[in-house]
Every structure is written in C-alpha cells, then in structure tokens.
Specification:
GPCR_Rhodpsn; Rhopdopsin 7-helix transmembrane proteins; globular; mainly alpha; three-stranded mixed beta sheet; sensory transduction; 3 strands; transmembrane helix
C-alpha cells in the first residue's frame, strides 16, 4: 500500500483471515479468554495481598507475575478484538506501533527474569530451608522485582529502536493482529540480516539467561526431593514447584519457537499462532496453573469465597 513514500508513517494490521462470521466467533472466544485472564490474575493479586498465609517470597513474586500477565495480554488483545469487529484492515499509527512493540517485548523480558528468580527462590526454600528467611528477606525480594522490571524495560530499548530505524518501503501491511517484529522486518527494504542476527543473540541471552538458573535450580531441587525418605514429604515438596515448573514449560516453549530463531521473518501463520500462545493462551492458563496446583492458594481462595458469601448474606 506504499506508493511513493520512503517509509511508513502508519501500518495496517491484517489480523485474521476468514469471513465476517468467523471473525465474530473469534471475537467471542478471545473476549471470553481475555475477561477470564483479567479476573483470574486480579483474584491472585488480591488474595496474595490480603491473605496472611501467602506472605512469602514465592507468592510475592506470583503477584508480580500476575500483573505482568495482565499487562502482556492487555497490550495486544483489546486492539485485536477491535480489529475483529471492524471490516477490512485496522490502521495503527507509527508511534502506537512502536509503543505496542516496546511494551510487549519489555513486559515479556521482565516476566522471564522473574520466572528465573522464582526458580532460585524454590531452590533456596527446598535445598536451604534453614537459611531461607535470611536469604529471601523483604529487601532481597524487593530488589529482585525492581531489577527484573528495570532490566526488562531497558534491555528492549535498542531492539525496538533498531527495528524502527529501518525503511519500510515495500508495504505497510503487517500480516498479524499486532505490530509483530518479524513481520515488520519482512516489510523493510533494507538488508536486515545483521539486525536479525543481533536480535537473535539478544533473545538467546534473555531466554537462556533466565532458563539456565531455572534448570540448575531444578536439578538441585529434584536431587534434594528424591533424598527425602517419606513419600508425603516428597509429594509436598514437589507440589510447591509444580505450578512454577508448568508455567516455565509453557512460557519458555512458546517464546523459544517465536524469538530464538536466526531468521525472524517466518511465515505469518507461524508468527500469528505462536503470538496467540504468548499473549492469549499463556496468560489465560497461568491463574489456573497456580491455583489448581497449589494447595495454599486453593485454601485462600476457598476462605475468600466463604467470607464473600457471608458478607452478601448479612
């Protein structure tokens, strides 16, 4: 759609292929998933803040993870829903596209840093229980969270800056439901090989930089748990790690397929499917993962529901 322009000042999001009826069905599905995601993660934030049984580093990190899940889905899904209701392609300005891509990548990077910190927290709790309160004190937890947020947002400044320094003269139609970096690079008439290689190295650093501590931590955790003589003790120790471990598998698995590739300009269908996994499915599943696989959270939820019912009766 670019004719005599040297670069794009706005983009058109192609969204999802298919008929108007299919778009309405997709709107209903994604709107439902978005509402459940908001409610589920908000409930986790509330019970972690209110319930005294959840005043530990593990749940402190979980509260921040839920905030990040709300942000990552809100950055992309409302615009996607709006696009499903409108006929044709959705227009997005250059500044909005920059902001969306930056926030999406920054929040995702922060989330991976926090997942790595949560793995180390589980390692200290299981392998060093007598020193847990000393090592994972309030000051340490606050510092870990602040560093995770600052690192996530500072780390993505250059990648986004480099992406929008390119000249977009081939087209300004982005074949996705948000400003996907892979599709943006595909539209550039510059030689993006070097930029893609640097972005690949940075993605490797972020993902494996947080995945390696997770793998090392769980290696020690599993080794320690297997040495516990009582079966009930082993089961209890595993239950404290199950939710985090499941979240790690889903989160890292989808992002490894999306970002850790030397060639960022993959097929649009591939990028769209994995982007849906990252921004819709994972934030939707995480509240269920952290409640259904965690006895303390289930107890806190049950007591919270009872208190709410008593308030309504009175």
């Amino acid at each position: 759609m670019l004719e005599n322009q040297s670069s794009a000042t706005e983009f058109y999001l192609l969204g999802f292929p298919g008929s108007e009826e299919l778009h309405h069905v997709l709107f209903a599905i994604f709107f439902f998933l978005y509402l459940v995601t908001l409610m589920g993660n908000t409930v986790i934030i509330m019970i972690v803040s209110v319930d005294k049984r959840l005043r530990s580093p593990m749940y402190f990190f979980l509260g921040h993870l839920s905030v990040l899940e709300i942000l990552v889905t809100t950055i992309t899904v409302p615009m996607m829903l709006w696009g499903l209701l409108l006929p044709g392609m959705q227009t997005i300005s250059l500044s909005t596209c920059i902001a969306q891509l930056f926030l999406y990548l920054a929040v995702g990077t922060t989330e991976f840093a926090l997942l790595g910190a949560m793995a180390v927290d589980r390692y200290v709790a299981i392998c060093n229980p007598l020193r847990y309160d000393i090592i994972m004190n309030n000051r340490t937890c606050n510092l870990v969270v602040i560093v995770s947020w600052v690192f996530g947002f500072l780390f993505q400044i250059w990648p986004v800056y480099a992406t929008f320094q390119l000249t977009y003269c081939k087209s300004n139609v982005v074949d996705n439901f948000f400003c996907d970096r892979g599709q943006l690079l595909k539209l550039s008439c510059n030689d993006t090989l070097f930029t893609e290689f640097i972005l690949f190295l940075m993605a490797v650093f972020v993902l494996f930089g947080s995945l390696i501590p997770t793998i090392v931590s769980y290696t020690y955790i599993i080794s320690t748990i297997l040495r516990i003589p009582a079966a009930s003790g082993r089961r209890k120790a595993f239950s404290t790690c199950a939710s985090h471990c499941t979240c790690v598998v889903i989160g890292y698995g989808s992002c490894l397929f999306l970002y850790v590739r030397p060639k960022q300009t993959q097929a649009a269908e591939y990028n769209r499917a994995v982007s849906l996994m990252v921004s819709v499915v994972t934030p939707f599943l995480n509240p269920f993962i952290f409640t259904l696989l965690n006895d303390k959270v289930i107890e806190a939820l049950r007591d919270g529901v009872k208190r709410c019912c008593q308030l309504f009766r009175n």
